[in-house]
Specification:
The complex is a heterodimer of chains A (94) and B (339). By secondary structure, chain A is an alpha+beta fold. Chain A is built from two helices and three strands. Chain A has one domain: Phenylacetic acid degradation B (Ubiquitin-like (UB roll), Roll). In chain B, 66% of the residues lie in helices and 2% in strands. Classes of the chains: A alpha+beta (94), B mainly alpha (339). The structure holds fe (ii) ion (2 copies).
């Protein structure tokens, strides 16, 4: 059986003003074919105005096993949220 | 992320009681499971099998309808059928990608389909004899697929659920274009109406078999429900489909080929529903195991497509390598010039 073709992650900007968003992945030999395949597979109904394709192996991801040390420290920093501060009602909306 | 490189090469997990209980607690809390999360090996295997079979069904499902693209009776019908078949190809690709996040490769899955090891929906082993079959497939087969797929949008495995959301968005036109075809025939000449009835006669039973064996005989159902891969049992979904479809047939003036079909007040917790007659499960298993009219043809067609596409894959790969080498050469040349 043929060797594996490269895996690409596909990101699409639905319309100007929004960021590119991950929509899925696909196999293609190079970036030119990856873009064409992404057009055919992920934008058959006007889903986007711009496509990014990125080799999957170029992505560095955080490890879910270390999710606690990565993300838990923010949980006790409630002073980062506006509701932490007491402002009298008389001041009005702030 | 969907990246293969990110998935632990060995999906081994320490499956002691505590691990399984913690996993079940995440599922019960409606948390989605993502590719790199720890998961029981059974959960992973079930998903690989199910998503793989689902992907193969989309791809093999292109064949019976593809058979009629060049013979569609008008440009409007041809454009719609072409778009539908192209969508099914897309569905297969979304699903293969979702399966790949679980550590199985596309090549492995393709190999298993071509060797006959992997199964796909038995419905695609029936032949498409007339144009009415194309309408009936859209109406019944895509209709049954939608019933199955809507709850899968809430499947506990994130990539599968996301793929199903895309699929479901696209499926609705498939069923509607099919129903429109059948409706046109049902309102046509006597011969056209007979053609529509004949197609319904042949596709009805295979369509309700698509939901799989009865709950009592369904081997993996209970665990899949507990893991929230499945949300409704086979029989519950089948009943839903029948209740939705019988009135649609009546509207067309067509008759569902089940002499025992009757309204039964006691079904659906007293809300009433259509009680169906006995299903010929021997036929179901015969077709699943390769004894359908079209099993050999379908795999032969997939093999031919794979073999005859080999030169395209090889050429694309060679071209990509040549371009990469040329770029590397230019980079090296550029550096020398700059120094
Ligand atoms: Fe589909
Ligand atoms: Fe479909």
């Amino acid at each position: 059986m043929a060797e594996a073709t490269r895996l690409w992650e596909v990101f699409i900007r639905p319309r100007n003003g929004l960021s590119h968003r991950h929509v899925g992945s696909l196999h293609a030999a190079d970036e030119v074919l990856a873009l064409q395949a992404a057009r055919d597979v992920y934008t058959r109904r006007g889903e986007g105005t711009s496509i990014w394709v990125i080799p999957s192996d170029a992505i560095t991801a955080s490890d879910p096993d270390h999710a606690a040390e990565m993300f838990d420290p923010t949980a006790d920093k409630i002073y980062r949220h506006p509701t932490f501060y007491d402002i009298p009602e008389d001041v009005g909306h702030m | 992320m969907y990246s293969q490189g990110l998935i632990g090469a060995d999906g081994r997990t320490e499956e002691d009681e505590a691990f399984l209980a913690a996993f079940q607690a995440r599922i019960d809390a409606e948390e989605k499971i993502e590719p790199k999360d720890a998961m029981p090996e059974g959960y992973r295997k079930t998903l690989v099998r199910q998503i793989g079979q689902h992907a193969h069904s989309e791809i093999v499902g292109m064949l019976p309808e593809g058979n009629w693209i060049t013979r569609a009776p008008s440009l409007r019908r041809k454009a719609a059928l072409l778009a539908k078949v192209q969508d099914e190809g897309g569905h297969g690709l979304y699903l293969y990608s979702a399966a790949e996040t679980l550590g199985v490769t596309r090549e492995q899955m393709t190999e298993e389909l071509l060797s006959g090891k992997a199964k796909y929906s038995s419905i695609f082993n029936y032949p498409t004899l007339t144009w009415a079959d194309i309408g009936t497939i859209g109406w019944l087969v895509d209709g049954a697929a939608i019933m199955n797929q809507i709850p899968l949008c809430r499947c506990s495995y994130g990539p599968y659920a996301r793929a199903m959301i895309r699929v479901c968005k696209e499926e609705s036109f498939h069923q509607r274009q099919g129903y429109e075809i059948v409706m046109t025939l049902a309102r046509g000449t006597e011969a056209q109406k007979a053609m529509a009835q004949d197609a319904l006669n042949r596709w009805w039973w295979p369509s309700i078999m698509m939901f799989g064996p009865h709950d009592a005989e369904s081997a993996h159902s209970e665990q899949s429900m507990a893991w929230k891969i499945k949300r409704f049992s086979n029989d519950a979904l089948r009943q839903k489909f029948i209740d939705a479809t019988v009135p649609q047939a009546e509207f067309l003036g067509l008759k569902v080929p089940d002499p025992d079909m009757a309204w039964d007040e006691s079904l659906n917790d007293g809300k009433g529903g259509y009680r169906h007659g006995p299903i010929d499960w021997d036929e179901f298993w015969r077709v699943v195991k390769g004894g359908g009219v079209m099993n050999r043809d379908r795999i032969k067609a997939r093999r031919k497509a794979w073999d005859e596409g080999a030169w395209v894959r090889e050429a694309a790969q060679a071209h990509a390598e040549k371009r990469a080498a040329r770029r590397a050469g230019e980079d090296a040349g550029g550096k020398v010039a700059a120094e």
